[in-house]
Amino acid sequence: MCNDGSALRDHREAQPAGGQMSRRHFMHGTAGTVAAAAVFGQLPELAARAATRDVSAGAATTAYSMAMHIHSSFSEQNGSMDSHLYQAVKNAVDVVWWTDHDHRMAAIGYRKTVHFTSLTAESGAAGEGKPWVWTKTVSGPLASASTGGIVTNPSSPNDPVAGGSLHLSALSTSTSTAKFGYYAECHPAGWNYRGNLTGQSLSIDVRIASGWSHGYLELLIATSHHEAAGGRAAGNYTLSYRFLPPGQAASRKAKGDLGVVSMPVSAAGKWQTFTISPSSDIAAIWPDLDNRDFALWGLTLSAASSGDIADGYFDYLRFNRKLTGQVFVDQQRDMSARLAAEYPSVTQRQGLEVSLFLPHLNWFGGAVAVPAYGGINYKTYLAFLRNTVVPQIHSGGGLVSYNHPYGYDQPALLPVDQQDAMLRQVAATLLPTAAAPAALGADILEVGYKTRQGVDLTHHLGLWDVLSRNAVFLTGNATSDDHAATNWRGMANNWFTSAWAASTAEADLLAALGAGRAWCASLSGYRGSMDLLVDGTCPMGSVSVSSVKSRKLAATATQIPAGGSLQVLRGTVDYAGTAAPTPNAQVVATYSAAQLATGSVTLPIDTSSSRFVRTQVRDASGTIVGASNPVWLLRSAPPGGIPRRRSC
After folding, report:
1. pTM score of the predicted model
2. Under a CB-based contact definition with an 8 Å cutoff, are residues 351 and 363 in contact?
Protein backbone atom coordinates (compact mmCIF):
# COMPACT_ATOMS: atom_id res chain seq x y z
CA MET A 1 0.00 0.00 0.00
CA CYS A 2 1.06 3.63 -0.45
CA ASN A 3 0.96 6.08 2.40
CA ASP A 4 -1.07 9.26 2.00
CA GLY A 5 1.82 11.61 2.61
CA SER A 6 0.75 12.73 6.08
CA ALA A 7 3.45 10.66 7.74
CA LEU A 8 5.95 12.15 5.30
CA ARG A 9 5.02 15.59 6.54
CA ASP A 10 5.07 14.72 10.23
CA HIS A 11 8.24 12.71 10.75
CA ARG A 12 10.65 15.27 9.32
CA GLU A 13 10.10 17.55 12.31
CA ALA A 14 11.90 15.18 14.67
CA GLN A 15 15.65 15.56 14.76
CA PRO A 16 17.45 12.25 14.13
CA ALA A 17 19.82 10.63 16.55
CA GLY A 18 23.27 12.15 16.48
CA GLY A 19 21.98 15.68 16.06
CA GLN A 20 21.67 15.64 12.26
CA MET A 21 18.98 18.04 11.17
CA SER A 22 16.13 16.31 9.39
CA ARG A 23 15.51 17.23 5.77
CA ARG A 24 12.24 19.01 6.34
CA HIS A 25 13.18 20.69 9.62
CA PHE A 26 14.47 23.69 7.70
CA MET A 27 12.67 23.52 4.33
CA HIS A 28 9.35 25.31 4.40
CA GLY A 29 8.80 27.84 1.63
CA THR A 30 10.99 30.91 1.25
CA ALA A 31 11.91 30.90 4.90
CA GLY A 32 13.11 27.34 4.46
CA THR A 33 15.43 28.36 1.65
CA VAL A 34 17.04 31.02 3.80
CA ALA A 35 17.34 28.52 6.63
CA ALA A 36 18.99 26.08 4.27
CA ALA A 37 21.63 28.68 3.51
CA ALA A 38 22.27 29.15 7.20
CA VAL A 39 22.51 25.40 7.80
CA PHE A 40 24.79 24.52 4.93
CA GLY A 41 26.71 27.76 4.49
CA GLN A 42 27.39 27.19 0.78
CA LEU A 43 24.66 28.95 -1.14
CA PRO A 44 26.19 32.32 -2.08
CA GLU A 45 23.58 33.29 -4.65
CA LEU A 46 20.49 32.88 -2.46
CA ALA A 47 20.37 36.41 -1.11
CA ALA A 48 21.01 37.96 -4.50
CA ARG A 49 18.87 35.76 -6.70
CA ALA A 50 15.58 37.52 -6.04
CA ALA A 51 17.11 40.69 -7.48
CA THR A 52 18.72 38.93 -10.44
CA ARG A 53 16.50 40.12 -13.24
CA ASP A 54 16.99 40.54 -16.95
CA VAL A 55 14.97 42.62 -19.37
CA SER A 56 17.02 42.19 -22.54
CA ALA A 57 14.55 39.81 -24.17
CA GLY A 58 11.77 42.38 -23.98
CA ALA A 59 10.12 41.03 -20.83
CA ALA A 60 11.38 40.71 -17.29
CA THR A 61 12.84 37.29 -16.62
CA THR A 62 14.54 35.63 -13.66
CA ALA A 63 17.49 33.27 -13.55
CA TYR A 64 16.32 29.79 -12.58
CA SER A 65 18.84 27.04 -11.93
CA MET A 66 18.01 23.54 -13.10
CA ALA A 67 19.22 19.97 -12.64
CA MET A 68 18.39 18.70 -16.12
CA HIS A 69 19.54 15.07 -16.16
CA ILE A 70 18.55 13.31 -12.95
CA HIS A 71 17.89 9.62 -12.26
CA SER A 72 15.82 8.45 -9.31
CA SER A 73 14.44 5.15 -8.06
CA PHE A 74 13.12 4.40 -11.56
CA SER A 75 16.61 3.87 -12.97
CA GLU A 76 19.43 1.46 -12.19
CA GLN A 77 21.22 2.88 -9.17
CA ASN A 78 20.45 4.02 -5.65
CA GLY A 79 18.99 7.49 -6.16
CA SER A 80 15.55 8.43 -4.88
CA MET A 81 13.31 11.34 -5.80
CA ASP A 82 13.28 12.31 -2.15
CA SER A 83 17.07 12.55 -1.83
CA HIS A 84 17.48 14.39 -5.12
CA LEU A 85 15.03 17.02 -3.95
CA TYR A 86 16.95 17.30 -0.70
CA GLN A 87 20.10 17.91 -2.74
CA ALA A 88 18.29 20.51 -4.84
CA VAL A 89 17.35 22.48 -1.73
CA LYS A 90 20.79 22.03 -0.21
CA ASN A 91 22.39 23.41 -3.39
CA ALA A 92 19.81 26.12 -4.14
CA VAL A 93 18.68 24.55 -7.41
CA ASP A 94 15.24 25.74 -8.44
CA VAL A 95 14.09 23.03 -10.85
CA VAL A 96 14.60 19.28 -11.10
CA TRP A 97 13.81 17.53 -14.38
CA TRP A 98 13.15 13.81 -13.83
CA THR A 99 14.83 11.94 -16.69
CA ASP A 100 14.78 8.28 -15.74
CA HIS A 101 15.60 5.62 -18.32
CA ASP A 102 12.63 4.61 -20.43
CA HIS A 103 13.91 1.08 -21.08
CA ARG A 104 14.25 0.48 -17.34
CA MET A 105 10.75 1.74 -16.68
CA ALA A 106 9.57 -0.62 -19.41
CA ALA A 107 11.86 -3.47 -18.19
CA ILE A 108 12.99 -4.13 -21.76
CA GLY A 109 15.36 -7.08 -21.92
CA TYR A 110 14.96 -7.74 -18.21
CA ARG A 111 15.57 -11.17 -16.72
CA LYS A 112 12.46 -13.00 -15.58
CA THR A 113 13.89 -16.31 -14.36
CA VAL A 114 17.17 -17.64 -13.00
CA HIS A 115 17.71 -21.42 -12.95
CA PHE A 116 21.16 -21.50 -11.30
CA THR A 117 22.88 -23.67 -13.85
CA SER A 118 26.01 -21.47 -13.93
CA LEU A 119 27.55 -18.52 -12.10
CA THR A 120 28.73 -16.94 -15.36
CA ALA A 121 27.13 -18.55 -18.39
CA GLU A 122 23.45 -19.17 -17.72
CA SER A 123 21.42 -17.53 -20.47
CA GLY A 124 17.96 -16.21 -19.93
CA ALA A 125 15.07 -16.67 -22.31
CA ALA A 126 15.14 -14.97 -25.69
CA GLY A 127 15.26 -11.20 -25.32
CA GLU A 128 16.49 -11.27 -21.71
CA GLY A 129 20.02 -10.15 -22.36
CA LYS A 130 23.44 -11.64 -21.70
CA PRO A 131 24.21 -14.20 -18.97
CA TRP A 132 24.50 -12.91 -15.44
CA VAL A 133 27.75 -12.91 -13.50
CA TRP A 134 27.44 -13.89 -9.84
CA THR A 135 30.34 -12.48 -7.82
CA LYS A 136 31.45 -14.11 -4.58
CA THR A 137 31.01 -11.91 -1.52
CA VAL A 138 32.07 -12.70 2.05
CA SER A 139 31.93 -10.85 5.35
CA GLY A 140 32.54 -11.38 9.05
CA PRO A 141 34.75 -13.95 10.82
CA LEU A 142 34.32 -16.62 8.18
CA ALA A 143 35.92 -20.03 8.64
CA SER A 144 37.80 -21.65 5.76
CA ALA A 145 35.20 -24.43 5.62
CA SER A 146 32.69 -21.97 4.17
CA THR A 147 31.91 -22.59 0.53
CA GLY A 148 29.40 -22.20 -2.25
CA GLY A 149 28.66 -22.57 -5.94
CA ILE A 150 26.48 -24.27 -8.51
CA VAL A 151 25.60 -27.91 -7.92
CA THR A 152 23.58 -30.25 -10.12
CA ASN A 153 21.85 -31.96 -7.22
CA PRO A 154 19.63 -31.22 -5.41
CA SER A 155 17.55 -28.92 -7.61
CA SER A 156 14.00 -27.74 -7.13
CA PRO A 157 11.31 -29.96 -8.66
CA ASN A 158 9.44 -26.77 -9.56
CA ASP A 159 12.20 -25.58 -11.87
CA PRO A 160 11.52 -26.57 -15.49
CA VAL A 161 15.28 -26.43 -16.13
CA ALA A 162 16.56 -29.32 -14.05
CA GLY A 163 20.07 -29.96 -12.83
CA GLY A 164 21.16 -26.82 -11.03
CA SER A 165 20.92 -24.90 -7.77
CA LEU A 166 23.08 -22.52 -5.75
CA HIS A 167 24.63 -24.22 -2.72
CA LEU A 168 25.82 -21.98 0.13
CA SER A 169 27.52 -22.93 3.36
CA ALA A 170 28.91 -20.52 5.96
CA LEU A 171 30.62 -21.07 9.30
CA SER A 172 31.49 -18.27 11.70
CA THR A 173 34.52 -18.65 13.93
CA SER A 174 32.58 -16.90 16.70
CA THR A 175 29.02 -15.92 17.54
CA SER A 176 29.35 -12.87 15.29
CA THR A 177 27.59 -13.19 11.95
CA ALA A 178 29.71 -14.30 9.02
CA LYS A 179 28.41 -14.60 5.46
CA PHE A 180 29.34 -16.45 2.30
CA GLY A 181 27.33 -15.58 -0.78
CA TYR A 182 27.06 -14.32 -4.33
CA TYR A 183 26.06 -10.91 -5.63
CA ALA A 184 24.23 -10.57 -8.95
CA GLU A 185 26.67 -8.18 -10.62
CA CYS A 186 24.96 -8.50 -14.02
CA HIS A 187 26.87 -5.61 -15.58
CA PRO A 188 27.44 -7.55 -18.84
CA ALA A 189 23.67 -8.00 -19.01
CA GLY A 190 23.03 -4.29 -18.48
CA TRP A 191 21.96 -4.70 -14.85
CA ASN A 192 18.72 -6.09 -16.17
CA TYR A 193 17.03 -6.55 -12.84
CA ARG A 194 17.48 -3.00 -11.55
CA GLY A 195 14.49 -0.68 -11.41
CA ASN A 196 11.62 0.56 -9.28
CA LEU A 197 10.20 -1.98 -6.84
CA THR A 198 6.57 -0.84 -6.97
CA GLY A 199 4.32 -3.72 -7.99
CA GLN A 200 7.20 -6.19 -8.12
CA SER A 201 7.44 -9.54 -6.35
CA LEU A 202 10.17 -12.16 -6.35
CA SER A 203 9.69 -15.88 -5.89
CA ILE A 204 12.52 -18.23 -4.98
CA ASP A 205 12.76 -21.88 -3.96
CA VAL A 206 14.71 -22.53 -0.76
CA ARG A 207 16.02 -25.72 0.80
CA ILE A 208 17.66 -25.62 4.23
CA ALA A 209 19.90 -28.50 5.29
CA SER A 210 19.13 -30.08 8.64
CA GLY A 211 21.19 -29.91 11.79
CA TRP A 212 21.73 -26.19 12.41
CA SER A 213 19.84 -23.33 14.04
CA HIS A 214 22.21 -20.38 14.57
CA GLY A 215 22.07 -18.56 11.26
CA TYR A 216 19.96 -18.16 8.15
CA LEU A 217 19.92 -18.18 4.38
CA GLU A 218 19.49 -14.66 3.05
CA LEU A 219 18.12 -12.86 0.01
CA LEU A 220 19.43 -9.33 0.43
CA ILE A 221 17.97 -6.43 -1.56
CA ALA A 222 19.94 -3.19 -1.63
CA THR A 223 17.62 -0.32 -2.42
CA SER A 224 17.56 3.48 -2.54
CA HIS A 225 19.29 6.23 -0.60
CA HIS A 226 17.05 8.39 1.60
CA GLU A 227 17.82 11.34 3.82
CA ALA A 228 17.63 11.44 7.60
CA ALA A 229 14.09 10.63 8.73
CA GLY A 230 12.22 9.17 11.67
CA GLY A 231 15.30 9.06 13.89
CA ARG A 232 17.33 7.29 11.19
CA ALA A 233 20.46 8.73 9.65
CA ALA A 234 20.71 9.27 5.92
CA GLY A 235 21.79 6.18 4.01
CA ASN A 236 21.00 3.35 1.64
CA TYR A 237 18.06 1.24 2.70
CA THR A 238 18.34 -2.55 2.62
CA LEU A 239 15.91 -5.45 2.95
CA SER A 240 17.20 -8.72 4.43
CA TYR A 241 14.93 -11.69 3.76
CA ARG A 242 16.07 -14.39 6.17
CA PHE A 243 15.04 -18.00 5.65
CA LEU A 244 15.30 -19.74 9.01
CA PRO A 245 15.39 -23.38 10.12
CA PRO A 246 11.96 -24.71 11.14
CA GLY A 247 10.46 -23.88 14.50
CA GLN A 248 11.63 -20.27 14.66
CA ALA A 249 9.35 -17.24 14.65
CA ALA A 250 8.41 -15.20 11.61
CA SER A 251 8.85 -11.45 12.00
CA ARG A 252 9.21 -8.16 10.15
CA LYS A 253 11.08 -5.28 11.78
CA ALA A 254 13.35 -2.31 11.21
CA LYS A 255 16.92 -1.94 12.41
CA GLY A 256 17.56 1.63 11.30
CA ASP A 257 17.74 1.57 7.50
CA LEU A 258 17.93 -2.25 7.48
CA GLY A 259 14.59 -4.03 7.22
CA VAL A 260 14.62 -7.65 8.41
CA VAL A 261 11.95 -10.10 7.28
CA SER A 262 12.37 -13.50 8.94
CA MET A 263 10.62 -16.51 7.42
CA PRO A 264 11.12 -20.05 8.77
CA VAL A 265 10.89 -23.02 6.42
CA SER A 266 8.26 -25.62 7.22
CA ALA A 267 10.75 -28.49 7.15
CA ALA A 268 14.48 -29.00 6.68
CA GLY A 269 15.70 -30.99 3.70
CA LYS A 270 12.71 -30.03 1.52
CA TRP A 271 12.19 -27.39 -1.16
CA GLN A 272 9.79 -24.57 -0.33
CA THR A 273 8.72 -21.60 -2.45
CA PHE A 274 8.75 -18.13 -0.91
CA THR A 275 7.30 -15.06 -2.58
CA ILE A 276 8.37 -11.65 -1.34
CA SER A 277 6.86 -8.23 -2.10
CA PRO A 278 9.54 -5.67 -1.19
CA SER A 279 7.42 -2.58 -1.75
CA SER A 280 4.76 -3.86 0.64
CA ASP A 281 7.40 -4.74 3.22
CA ILE A 282 8.92 -1.26 2.91
CA ALA A 283 5.49 0.26 3.55
CA ALA A 284 5.08 -1.83 6.69
CA ILE A 285 8.63 -1.45 8.02
CA TRP A 286 9.10 2.26 7.31
CA PRO A 287 5.58 3.72 7.14
CA ASP A 288 6.97 7.27 7.29
CA LEU A 289 8.49 6.91 3.79
CA ASP A 290 6.80 6.67 0.41
CA ASN A 291 7.29 2.99 -0.43
CA ARG A 292 7.12 3.78 -4.15
CA ASP A 293 10.44 5.65 -4.04
CA PHE A 294 12.65 2.56 -3.73
CA ALA A 295 14.60 0.64 -6.35
CA LEU A 296 15.90 -2.89 -6.64
CA TRP A 297 19.56 -1.87 -6.81
CA GLY A 298 21.43 -4.93 -5.59
CA LEU A 299 20.60 -8.62 -5.14
CA THR A 300 22.74 -10.97 -3.02
CA LEU A 301 22.15 -14.58 -1.94
CA SER A 302 24.08 -15.76 1.11
CA ALA A 303 24.38 -18.22 3.94
CA ALA A 304 24.86 -16.42 7.27
CA SER A 305 26.29 -18.18 10.32
CA SER A 306 26.37 -17.06 13.94
CA GLY A 307 28.03 -20.22 15.22
CA ASP A 308 26.56 -23.18 13.32
CA ILE A 309 27.33 -24.28 9.79
CA ALA A 310 24.49 -22.49 7.99
CA ASP A 311 23.89 -24.63 4.93
CA GLY A 312 21.29 -24.71 2.16
CA TYR A 313 20.28 -24.11 -1.44
CA PHE A 314 18.53 -21.54 -3.65
CA ASP A 315 16.87 -22.33 -6.96
CA TYR A 316 14.36 -21.04 -9.50
CA LEU A 317 14.35 -17.28 -8.90
CA ARG A 318 11.44 -15.53 -10.62
CA PHE A 319 10.65 -11.83 -11.08
CA ASN A 320 7.03 -10.77 -11.41
CA ARG A 321 6.78 -7.15 -12.59
CA LYS A 322 3.16 -6.03 -12.64
CA LEU A 323 3.91 -2.36 -13.36
CA THR A 324 6.05 -1.22 -16.28
CA GLY A 325 6.34 1.48 -18.89
CA GLN A 326 3.96 4.41 -18.97
CA VAL A 327 2.46 3.39 -15.63
CA PHE A 328 5.76 4.38 -14.01
CA VAL A 329 5.85 7.75 -15.79
CA ASP A 330 2.37 8.46 -14.45
CA GLN A 331 3.37 7.21 -10.99
CA GLN A 332 6.37 9.52 -11.00
CA ARG A 333 4.13 12.48 -11.79
CA ASP A 334 1.91 11.56 -8.84
CA MET A 335 4.91 11.20 -6.56
CA SER A 336 6.16 14.61 -7.72
CA ALA A 337 2.88 16.20 -6.74
CA ARG A 338 3.07 14.70 -3.26
CA LEU A 339 6.72 15.59 -2.79
CA ALA A 340 6.01 19.19 -3.77
CA ALA A 341 4.52 19.78 -0.33
CA GLU A 342 7.75 18.55 1.25
CA TYR A 343 10.07 20.56 -0.98
CA PRO A 344 8.12 23.72 -1.89
CA SER A 345 11.20 25.66 -3.03
CA VAL A 346 11.90 23.15 -5.85
CA THR A 347 9.84 22.91 -9.01
CA GLN A 348 9.66 19.40 -10.47
CA ARG A 349 9.25 18.84 -14.20
CA GLN A 350 8.67 15.57 -16.03
CA GLY A 351 11.17 14.27 -18.52
CA LEU A 352 12.45 10.91 -19.74
CA GLU A 353 15.72 9.53 -21.06
CA VAL A 354 15.16 7.68 -24.32
CA SER A 355 17.98 5.20 -23.97
CA LEU A 356 17.41 1.74 -25.40
CA PHE A 357 20.75 2.04 -27.26
CA LEU A 358 23.22 4.85 -27.87
CA PRO A 359 22.74 7.72 -28.49
CA HIS A 360 20.52 8.69 -25.58
CA LEU A 361 18.05 11.55 -25.85
CA ASN A 362 16.35 13.43 -23.04
CA TRP A 363 12.69 14.28 -23.51
CA PHE A 364 11.84 17.48 -21.67
CA GLY A 365 8.21 18.42 -21.05
CA GLY A 366 5.13 18.09 -23.17
CA ALA A 367 3.34 14.78 -23.53
CA VAL A 368 6.09 12.58 -22.07
CA ALA A 369 5.52 8.92 -22.95
CA VAL A 370 7.61 5.76 -23.09
CA PRO A 371 8.26 5.08 -26.80
CA ALA A 372 6.82 1.94 -28.38
CA TYR A 373 9.97 -0.05 -29.10
CA GLY A 374 8.33 -3.09 -30.68
CA GLY A 375 10.62 -4.51 -33.38
CA ILE A 376 13.36 -1.91 -32.84
CA ASN A 377 16.97 -3.14 -32.66
CA TYR A 378 20.33 -1.40 -32.63
CA LYS A 379 20.40 -1.34 -36.44
CA THR A 380 17.07 0.47 -36.73
CA TYR A 381 17.40 2.57 -33.58
CA LEU A 382 18.88 5.73 -35.13
CA ALA A 383 16.20 5.93 -37.80
CA PHE A 384 13.56 5.31 -35.13
CA LEU A 385 14.87 8.23 -33.07
CA ARG A 386 15.12 10.56 -36.05
CA ASN A 387 11.86 9.68 -37.76
CA THR A 388 9.58 8.73 -34.87
CA VAL A 389 10.76 9.73 -31.41
CA VAL A 390 12.04 13.26 -32.08
CA PRO A 391 8.95 14.24 -34.11
CA GLN A 392 6.76 12.74 -31.36
CA ILE A 393 8.50 14.84 -28.71
CA HIS A 394 8.19 18.00 -30.75
CA SER A 395 4.57 17.40 -31.68
CA GLY A 396 3.77 16.89 -28.01
CA GLY A 397 5.29 20.25 -27.09
CA GLY A 398 8.59 19.01 -25.68
CA LEU A 399 12.27 19.61 -26.34
CA VAL A 400 14.96 17.07 -27.17
CA SER A 401 18.45 16.90 -25.72
CA TYR A 402 21.30 14.95 -27.31
CA ASN A 403 22.94 13.44 -24.24
CA HIS A 404 26.61 12.81 -23.35
CA PRO A 405 27.69 12.93 -27.00
CA TYR A 406 30.97 11.05 -26.46
CA GLY A 407 29.40 8.25 -24.41
CA TYR A 408 28.21 7.61 -20.88
CA ASP A 409 31.14 5.88 -19.12
CA GLN A 410 33.65 7.49 -16.76
CA PRO A 411 37.15 6.20 -17.60
CA ALA A 412 40.31 8.21 -16.98
CA LEU A 413 40.97 11.15 -19.28
CA LEU A 414 42.32 10.10 -22.65
CA PRO A 415 45.43 11.63 -24.26
CA VAL A 416 44.68 14.98 -25.89
CA ASP A 417 45.34 13.72 -29.42
CA GLN A 418 42.83 10.93 -28.87
CA GLN A 419 40.28 13.42 -27.55
CA ASP A 420 40.90 15.56 -30.63
CA ALA A 421 40.21 12.58 -32.87
CA MET A 422 37.02 11.76 -30.99
CA LEU A 423 35.85 15.37 -31.32
CA ARG A 424 36.28 15.24 -35.09
CA GLN A 425 34.57 11.87 -35.32
CA VAL A 426 31.56 12.82 -33.18
CA ALA A 427 31.22 16.23 -34.81
CA ALA A 428 31.00 14.58 -38.22
CA THR A 429 28.11 12.42 -37.01
CA LEU A 430 26.21 15.38 -35.53
CA LEU A 431 26.50 17.79 -38.44
CA PRO A 432 23.49 18.00 -40.76
CA THR A 433 23.36 16.11 -44.03
CA ALA A 434 21.00 16.09 -46.96
CA ALA A 435 19.29 13.06 -45.42
CA ALA A 436 19.27 13.98 -41.74
CA PRO A 437 19.10 17.05 -39.51
CA ALA A 438 21.88 17.93 -37.10
CA ALA A 439 22.02 15.82 -33.95
CA LEU A 440 18.92 13.86 -35.04
CA GLY A 441 16.88 17.07 -34.81
CA ALA A 442 17.64 17.72 -31.14
CA ASP A 443 17.21 21.18 -29.61
CA ILE A 444 19.81 20.84 -26.83
CA LEU A 445 23.32 19.40 -26.60
CA GLU A 446 24.90 18.33 -23.31
CA VAL A 447 28.22 20.18 -23.15
CA GLY A 448 28.80 20.90 -19.46
CA TYR A 449 30.76 17.82 -18.39
CA LYS A 450 34.07 18.17 -16.60
CA THR A 451 34.88 14.71 -17.93
CA ARG A 452 32.84 12.03 -19.69
CA GLN A 453 33.97 8.98 -21.64
CA GLY A 454 37.55 10.13 -21.11
CA VAL A 455 36.85 13.51 -22.76
CA ASP A 456 37.34 16.78 -20.91
CA LEU A 457 35.20 19.92 -20.73
CA THR A 458 37.26 21.74 -23.37
CA HIS A 459 36.46 19.08 -25.95
CA HIS A 460 32.77 19.07 -25.02
CA LEU A 461 32.65 22.84 -25.53
CA GLY A 462 34.74 22.42 -28.69
CA LEU A 463 32.22 19.98 -30.13
CA TRP A 464 29.51 22.57 -29.54
CA ASP A 465 31.66 25.22 -31.24
CA VAL A 466 31.96 23.02 -34.34
CA LEU A 467 28.19 22.97 -34.60
CA SER A 468 27.99 26.70 -33.98
CA ARG A 469 30.46 27.45 -36.82
CA ASN A 470 28.02 25.59 -39.07
CA ALA A 471 25.01 27.63 -37.89
CA VAL A 472 23.55 24.66 -36.04
CA PHE A 473 21.53 26.41 -33.36
CA LEU A 474 21.68 24.06 -30.39
CA THR A 475 21.27 25.20 -26.81
CA GLY A 476 24.18 23.98 -24.75
CA ASN A 477 23.27 22.71 -21.32
CA ALA A 478 25.15 21.16 -18.40
CA THR A 479 24.17 18.12 -16.40
CA SER A 480 25.38 15.78 -13.70
CA ASP A 481 23.53 12.66 -14.91
CA ASP A 482 23.42 11.78 -11.23
CA HIS A 483 21.98 8.41 -10.21
CA ALA A 484 22.93 8.48 -6.53
CA ALA A 485 21.46 11.64 -4.92
CA THR A 486 24.05 11.75 -2.16
CA ASN A 487 26.35 14.69 -2.96
CA TRP A 488 25.56 16.91 -5.92
CA ARG A 489 28.17 19.49 -5.03
CA GLY A 490 30.96 16.97 -4.49
CA MET A 491 30.57 15.14 -7.80
CA ALA A 492 33.19 15.54 -10.50
CA ASN A 493 30.42 16.29 -12.99
CA ASN A 494 28.58 18.69 -10.73
CA TRP A 495 27.45 21.07 -13.48
CA PHE A 496 23.96 22.51 -13.79
CA THR A 497 22.04 24.77 -16.17
CA SER A 498 20.39 28.12 -15.52
CA ALA A 499 17.86 29.83 -17.76
CA TRP A 500 16.41 33.32 -18.00
CA ALA A 501 12.70 32.54 -17.88
CA ALA A 502 9.46 34.29 -16.97
CA SER A 503 8.72 31.60 -14.36
CA THR A 504 9.33 27.94 -13.57
CA ALA A 505 6.18 26.97 -15.43
CA GLU A 506 6.99 24.28 -17.97
CA ALA A 507 6.09 26.45 -20.96
CA ASP A 508 8.33 29.29 -19.76
CA LEU A 509 11.29 26.99 -19.08
CA LEU A 510 10.93 25.28 -22.46
CA ALA A 511 10.66 28.64 -24.21
CA ALA A 512 13.87 29.83 -22.55
CA LEU A 513 15.74 26.63 -23.34
CA GLY A 514 14.53 26.54 -26.91
CA ALA A 515 15.71 30.11 -27.41
CA GLY A 516 19.14 29.50 -25.90
CA ARG A 517 18.51 31.84 -22.98
CA ALA A 518 20.67 29.69 -20.74
CA TRP A 519 24.15 29.18 -19.34
CA CYS A 520 26.07 26.34 -17.67
CA ALA A 521 28.14 26.29 -14.51
CA SER A 522 29.75 24.17 -11.82
CA LEU A 523 27.86 23.93 -8.53
CA SER A 524 31.11 24.21 -6.61
CA GLY A 525 32.85 26.65 -8.93
CA TYR A 526 30.47 29.37 -10.05
CA ARG A 527 27.06 30.54 -8.85
CA GLY A 528 26.82 33.87 -10.62
CA SER A 529 24.66 34.68 -13.64
CA MET A 530 25.64 35.07 -17.30
CA ASP A 531 24.06 36.81 -20.27
CA LEU A 532 24.79 38.41 -23.63
CA LEU A 533 23.10 41.30 -25.40
CA VAL A 534 24.06 42.63 -28.84
CA ASP A 535 23.24 46.20 -29.87
CA GLY A 536 20.78 46.42 -27.00
CA THR A 537 18.27 44.14 -28.72
CA CYS A 538 19.62 40.66 -29.50
CA PRO A 539 19.93 38.43 -26.42
CA MET A 540 22.00 35.33 -25.74
CA GLY A 541 20.85 32.46 -27.91
CA SER A 542 19.50 34.63 -30.70
CA VAL A 543 20.48 34.84 -34.36
CA SER A 544 20.83 38.24 -36.01
CA VAL A 545 21.46 39.00 -39.69
CA SER A 546 23.08 42.31 -40.59
CA SER A 547 25.58 43.64 -43.12
CA VAL A 548 27.28 45.96 -40.63
CA LYS A 549 30.91 45.15 -39.90
CA SER A 550 30.90 45.76 -36.18
CA ARG A 551 28.39 45.01 -33.44
CA LYS A 552 28.33 46.05 -29.78
CA LEU A 553 28.27 43.21 -27.27
CA ALA A 554 27.30 43.59 -23.61
CA ALA A 555 28.58 40.56 -21.72
CA THR A 556 27.26 39.92 -18.21
CA ALA A 557 28.89 37.71 -15.60
CA THR A 558 28.18 38.35 -11.94
CA GLN A 559 30.09 36.98 -8.94
CA ILE A 560 33.25 36.07 -10.82
CA PRO A 561 35.43 34.00 -8.43
CA ALA A 562 38.24 35.90 -6.75
CA GLY A 563 41.23 35.82 -9.06
CA GLY A 564 39.07 34.54 -11.87
CA SER A 565 38.11 36.03 -15.22
CA LEU A 566 35.54 36.25 -17.99
CA GLN A 567 36.63 35.35 -21.50
CA VAL A 568 34.86 36.36 -24.68
CA LEU A 569 35.23 33.84 -27.51
CA ARG A 570 34.48 34.55 -31.16
CA GLY A 571 34.18 32.01 -33.94
CA THR A 572 33.60 32.38 -37.66
CA VAL A 573 30.46 30.83 -39.15
CA ASP A 574 31.95 29.39 -42.32
CA TYR A 575 29.82 26.25 -42.88
CA ALA A 576 32.94 24.11 -43.08
CA GLY A 577 30.93 20.93 -42.48
CA THR A 578 32.68 17.58 -42.34
CA ALA A 579 35.64 18.97 -44.31
CA ALA A 580 36.81 20.69 -41.12
CA PRO A 581 34.97 19.24 -38.09
CA THR A 582 37.10 21.21 -35.62
CA PRO A 583 36.36 24.23 -33.40
CA ASN A 584 37.48 27.67 -34.53
CA ALA A 585 36.42 29.84 -31.57
CA GLN A 586 39.19 31.99 -30.15
CA VAL A 587 39.44 34.21 -27.08
CA VAL A 588 39.22 37.86 -28.17
CA ALA A 589 38.97 39.52 -24.75
CA THR A 590 39.60 38.65 -21.10
CA TYR A 591 38.26 40.58 -18.11
CA SER A 592 39.31 40.19 -14.50
CA ALA A 593 36.91 39.91 -11.60
CA ALA A 594 37.69 43.55 -10.75
CA GLN A 595 36.74 44.66 -14.26
CA LEU A 596 33.43 42.81 -13.83
CA ALA A 597 32.65 44.60 -10.56
CA THR A 598 29.52 46.08 -12.10
CA GLY A 599 28.52 42.72 -13.54
CA SER A 600 28.94 43.53 -17.24
CA VAL A 601 31.34 44.86 -19.85
CA THR A 602 30.78 46.23 -23.34
CA LEU A 603 33.04 45.58 -26.33
CA PRO A 604 32.89 45.71 -30.14
CA ILE A 605 32.68 42.50 -32.16
CA ASP A 606 34.12 42.35 -35.66
CA THR A 607 31.35 41.11 -37.94
CA SER A 608 33.11 41.58 -41.27
CA SER A 609 32.47 37.85 -41.50
CA SER A 610 29.58 35.89 -40.00
CA ARG A 611 30.34 35.16 -36.35
CA PHE A 612 29.16 33.43 -33.23
CA VAL A 613 30.14 34.71 -29.80
CA ARG A 614 29.99 33.09 -26.38
CA THR A 615 31.65 33.66 -23.01
CA GLN A 616 33.17 31.51 -20.32
CA VAL A 617 34.19 32.04 -16.70
CA ARG A 618 37.49 30.76 -15.34
CA ASP A 619 38.44 30.54 -11.67
CA ALA A 620 41.76 31.60 -10.18
CA SER A 621 43.38 28.31 -11.27
CA GLY A 622 42.30 28.84 -14.87
CA THR A 623 39.64 26.13 -14.77
CA ILE A 624 36.49 26.82 -16.76
CA VAL A 625 33.59 26.97 -14.29
CA GLY A 626 30.87 28.61 -16.38
CA ALA A 627 29.88 29.00 -20.04
CA SER A 628 27.20 31.06 -21.76
CA ASN A 629 25.21 30.10 -24.81
CA PRO A 630 26.26 31.85 -28.03
CA VAL A 631 24.72 34.64 -30.01
CA TRP A 632 25.07 34.32 -33.81
CA LEU A 633 25.83 37.48 -35.80
CA LEU A 634 25.46 36.55 -39.47
CA ARG A 635 25.88 38.60 -42.61
CA SER A 636 23.31 36.60 -44.55
CA ALA A 637 20.50 34.22 -43.72
CA PRO A 638 21.70 30.67 -42.98
CA PRO A 639 20.75 27.91 -45.46
CA GLY A 640 18.44 26.23 -42.96
CA GLY A 641 16.73 29.42 -41.90
CA ILE A 642 16.42 30.86 -38.40
CA PRO A 643 14.15 29.21 -35.83
CA ARG A 644 11.36 31.58 -34.89
CA ARG A 645 12.23 31.54 -31.21
CA ARG A 646 15.81 32.60 -31.97
CA SER A 647 15.10 35.32 -34.51
CA CYS A 648 16.31 38.81 -33.67
Report:
1. 0.92
2. yes
